[in-house]
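Sequence of Putative membrane protein insertion efficiency factor (Ligilactobacillus murinus).
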Amino acid sequence: MKFFSKLLILPVKFYQKGISPLLPPSCRYYPTCSTYMIQAIEKHGALLGLLMGCARILRCNPFVRGGYDPVGDHFSLRRNKNPKK
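Predicted 3D structure, token representation.
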């Protein structure tokens, strides 16, 4: 993994271990938005993964149904329409 990708993942891991346990569960998706961000960065690189993760966070709101939404094999800012379990 490249240095910049690791650098972007560090604050997400800090959030997962230091901040998230103090808050009530609120993510509407599985995997959670923070896990999605890490997986997207690992799979698609720093820039595209960051964009995918930010788009996912913006989709995570009370007006969406949520549900299973894994990181897709191809870059997209939209929800994964054909998730494979």
